[in-house]
Structure formats: C-alpha cells, structure tokens
Amino acid sequence: MSVEVYYDDDADLGLIQAKKVAVIGYGSQGHAHALSLRDSGVDVVIGLPEGSKSRPKAEEQGLRVVTPAEAAAEADVIMVLAPDTAQRGIYAESIAPHLAPGKAIFFGHGFNIRYGLIKPPAEVDVAMVAPKGPGHLVRRQYSDGKGVPCLVAVEQDASGNALALALAYAKGIGGTRAGAIKTTFTEETETDLFGEQAVLCGGASALVQTGFEVLTEAGYAPEIAYFECLHELKLIVDLMYEGGIAKMRYSISDTAEYGDLSRGSRIIDSRVKDEMRKILGEIQSGEFAREWVAEDEAGRPNFTKWQAEGAAHPIEETGKKLRGMMSWVDRPITETA
Ligand SMILES: NC(=O)C1=CN([C@@H]2O[C@H](COP(=O)(O)OP(=O)(O)OC[C@H]3O[C@@H](n4cnc5c(N)ncnc54)[C@H](OP(=O)(O)O)[C@@H]3O)[C@@H](O)[C@H]2O)C=CC1
Ligand SMILES: CC[C@](O)(C(C)=O)C(=O)O
Ligand SMILES: [Mg+2]
Ligand SMILES: [Mg+2]
C-alpha cells in the first residue's frame, strides 16, 4: 500500500500563522513544538497548571504561559502535549468547555482518541502531528535547519481544511523538511506503541543490558562491555540511519558481517518474533492501553519499581564515568536548544 508523503512545498505555513496555537504541556514534545512554531512566526501560548515546574522553563524562553483552560479558551488550535495518561482529565476539565465550531484539537500521539478516552464534539477538527523522534531532537533538528519526519492524521474534518492545517503545523516544527506521512490515528497509535515496546525502547534497552550482563558476568571489564554493547551501538545505528543496514554492513569487517549474518537470527529468533506478534496483539486489542491506564490510576507502582531497577543497573554507573571523559557525548538535555 503506497502512502502520501508531504514536503515543505506541499504545506502552507500561512494557514497556521493565521491561527493562535495553544500548546498544552511543556515537556519533551511541548517545548519543541512551542519554540519551533514561534520561530516559524506562529502566535503561541502555553497552557500549564499554576505551580507546574515547567512554567519557569517556558517563561525563560519568552513564551506566555497561562492555565490550560485559559489557553484553550483563547486559541484556535489546541495541541495536547501533556502525558498521555493525563490528557483525559485535562480535556474534560480545561479543554472541552472551550471547544467551539471553527476550533481544532491536535494531538502528538493518537492514544486517547484511538482508545476512546477522549471524544471531541463533531463541530471541531481533530488532527494529529506526531513526530517520529524524541522531542529534544525534534527541537535540535529544527534549530539545525533539519527536521524529524512526522505522521499526520485527521480524525474529524469539521472545517474541511484539517489536513492542510495539520501540514502547516508540521511545517512549523520542521516535519515537512523530512517528510510528513498521512495516516490514521489507529495506524499511528498501534505502530508507535509497537515500535517503542518491541524495537526502539523495550527491545533495544533489553538487548543492550543483556549483552552487557553476559560479558561482565563472564569476567570481562564493564568499561569494555559498555563500549561494545552501548556506545558503539550509536555508531552502528548512525550508519543504518544514513544508508540502511546495507551501509552498516559495507563499513564493518567481513568477520563482523559473517557473525552478523550467521548469528543474528539466533538472537532475534522465531520465539522473539512470536512475542513481538503477541505484543502487537495486546496493542490492537486495547489490552496494553487498559493495563497502562490502570497502572497510572493505581499510582504507577510497577512503573516506579521498574524505573528504579533500570536506573540501578550497573551499565548506568559505568556509562556515567566513561561519558564524563567525552565532552562531545555528555550533552545535557535542554529545553532551550
Ligand atoms: N516524548 C516524545 O518524544 C514523544 C511524545 N509524543 C507524545 O507527545 C505527548 C507528550 O509527551 P511528552 O512530551 O513525552 O510529555 P512529557 O512528560 O515530557 O511532558 C509533560 C508536560 O506536561 C505537563 N503537564 C503535566 N500534567 C499537566 C496538566 N494536568 N496540564 C497541563 N500540563 C501538564 C508537564 O508539566 P510539569 O513539568 O509541571 O510536570 C510537562 O510540561 C504524548 O501524547 C506523547 O505520547 C509523541 C512523540 C514522541
Ligand atoms: C520511541 C518513543 C516515542 O514513541 C518517541 C520518542 O517517538 C515516545 O512515545 O516517546
Ligand atoms: Mg514514537
Ligand atoms: Mg510513543
């Protein structure tokens, strides 16, 4: 099935420059969208609760901050970039009362629409601009004149112009420099959750930690295990990013390539593929979403425990020491890029 990919020339920035945009939340995605939209000539207001620890960060960047309800009331386009689990409550309390014909509600990920947690009224546009990358890099790439690809989707087209508005928004954050693919809320949500669980975050973290454990438990130096299993992964993935797996294989030794070709499928074997299919099934059926919402409502007991276990993994201590010796690597996460 072919997809439609939109680039800068396909999007009219003037459409979003003519609107007032409220960005609700000023975290990873929120700061990136708000700062890049502003730099693209868009009128932006930030919605954050009184006492939010993000307020000083946004204000230091010269952005005007009001409450989520005030931002929703004054804006034409309301982009919801608070955590997925908080969005339902923010919507009910602060956004829904201020929706009116001619307004649009935008999302950076389809979770709450796909799983029916938010149901906007028929008279507003409902659209998505979902960058395919972490917010801090969305901002860094925009500032460097580059862009992170985006997925755009329209759930409700009350104005008849929702796709053009979403593309204009994507252009304002640099997305159409790299390409904005038109999709649906369902496809974005399910592929995004699958990617982060099975490959990008869950799969990659477990692969790196397990490789580090096997080497150190066999008596090898943690520093060598760190360079081998984590640091060099970035350099290997950089080549994949630039030219696919083929370019990575072109650059590595024949010995490495033979090991890759003959051993890789013993690591990621049919059992792993079956488990990936199971994970996809849990996403498609809504089982994962129900579990995550319940975990959040219970105060995140497992999330907190697993987060602490991850932070205490020996690879973190080893990495901290080694990265401290490489000034070009130890780059702080910043909301001011
Ligand atoms: N992280 C990423 O790179 C990506 C995220 N997305 C999607 O973007 C959305 C935002 O995620 P992400 O950027 O990670 O979120 P973060 O957790 O980084 O940011 C949370 C922000 O929301 C604020 N916030 C928390 N509660 C409320 C509230 N009740 N009202 C208003 N603001 C609130 C926080 O303020 P405080 O500082 O006070 O806590 C903070 O500014 C999600 O839908 C996510 O799936 C999509 C692509 C990638
Ligand atoms: C890979 C994780 C992500 O989907 C992202 C940065 O794209 C997220 O939800 O943070
Ligand atoms: Mg993602
Ligand atoms: Mg995601």
Automatic annotation (TrEMBL):
<feature type="binding site">
    <location>
        <position position="54"/>
    </location>
    <ligand>
        <name>NADP(+)</name>
    </ligand>
</feature>
<feature type="binding site">
    <location>
        <position position="135"/>
    </location>
    <ligand>
        <name>NADP(+)</name>
    </ligand>
</feature>
<keyword id="KW-0560">Oxidoreductase</keyword>
<feature type="binding site">
    <location>
        <position position="52"/>
    </location>
    <ligand>
        <name>NADP(+)</name>
    </ligand>
</feature>
<feature type="binding site">
    <location>
        <position position="192"/>
    </location>
    <ligand>
        <name>Mg(2+) 2</name>
    </ligand>
</feature>
<keyword id="KW-0460">Magnesium</keyword>
<feature type="binding site">
    <location>
        <position position="196"/>
    </location>
    <ligand>
        <name>Mg(2+) 1</name>
    </ligand>
</feature>
<feature type="binding site">
    <location>
        <position position="228"/>
    </location>
    <ligand>
        <name>Mg(2+) 2</name>
    </ligand>
</feature>
<feature type="domain" description="KARI N-terminal Rossmann">
    <location>
        <begin position="3"/>
        <end position="183"/>
    </location>
</feature>
<feature type="binding site">
    <location>
        <position position="192"/>
    </location>
    <ligand>
        <name>Mg(2+) 1</name>
    </ligand>
</feature>
<comment type="pathway">
    <text>Amino-acid biosynthesis; L-valine biosynthesis; L-valine from pyruvate: step 2/4.</text>
</comment>
<keyword id="KW-0028">Amino-acid biosynthesis</keyword>
<dbReference type="InterPro" id="IPR013116">
    <property type="entry name" value="KARI_N"/>
</dbReference>
<dbReference type="InterPro" id="IPR000506">
    <property type="entry name" value="KARI_C"/>
</dbReference>
<protein>
    <recommendedName>
        <fullName>Ketol-acid reductoisomerase (NADP(+))</fullName>
        <ecNumber>1.1.1.86</ecNumber>
    </recommendedName>
</protein>
<keyword id="KW-0100">Branched-chain amino acid biosynthesis</keyword>
<feature type="active site">
    <location>
        <position position="109"/>
    </location>
</feature>
<comment type="similarity">
    <text>Belongs to the ketol-acid reductoisomerase family.</text>
</comment>
<dbReference type="Pfam" id="PF07991">
    <property type="entry name" value="KARI_N"/>
</dbReference>
<comment type="function">
    <text>Involved in the biosynthesis of branched-chain amino acids (BCAA). Catalyzes an alkyl-migration followed by a ketol-acid reduction of (S)-2-acetolactate (S2AL) to yield (R)-2,3-dihydroxy-isovalerate. In the isomerase reaction, S2AL is rearranged via a Mg-dependent methyl migration to produce 3-hydroxy-3-methyl-2-ketobutyrate (HMKB). In the reductase reaction, this 2-ketoacid undergoes a metal-dependent reduction by NADPH to yield (R)-2,3-dihydroxy-isovalerate.</text>
</comment>
<dbReference type="InterPro" id="IPR013023">
    <property type="entry name" value="KARI"/>
</dbReference>
<dbReference type="InterPro" id="IPR014359">
    <property type="entry name" value="KARI_prok"/>
</dbReference>
<keyword id="KW-0521">NADP</keyword>
<dbReference type="InterPro" id="IPR008927">
    <property type="entry name" value="6-PGluconate_DH-like_C_sf"/>
</dbReference>
<dbReference type="GO" id="GO:0004455">
    <property type="term" value="F:ketol-acid reductoisomerase activity"/>
</dbReference>
<keyword id="KW-0479">Metal-binding</keyword>
<feature type="domain" description="KARI C-terminal knotted">
    <location>
        <begin position="184"/>
        <end position="329"/>
    </location>
</feature>
<comment type="pathway">
    <text>Amino-acid biosynthesis; L-isoleucine biosynthesis; L-isoleucine from 2-oxobutanoate: step 2/4.</text>
</comment>
<feature type="binding site">
    <location>
        <begin position="26"/>
        <end position="29"/>
    </location>
    <ligand>
        <name>NADP(+)</name>
    </ligand>
</feature>
<feature type="binding site">
    <location>
        <position position="253"/>
    </location>
    <ligand>
        <name>substrate</name>
    </ligand>
</feature>
<dbReference type="InterPro" id="IPR036291">
    <property type="entry name" value="NAD(P)-bd_dom_sf"/>
</dbReference>
<dbReference type="Pfam" id="PF01450">
    <property type="entry name" value="KARI_C"/>
</dbReference>
<feature type="binding site">
    <location>
        <position position="232"/>
    </location>
    <ligand>
        <name>Mg(2+) 2</name>
    </ligand>
</feature>
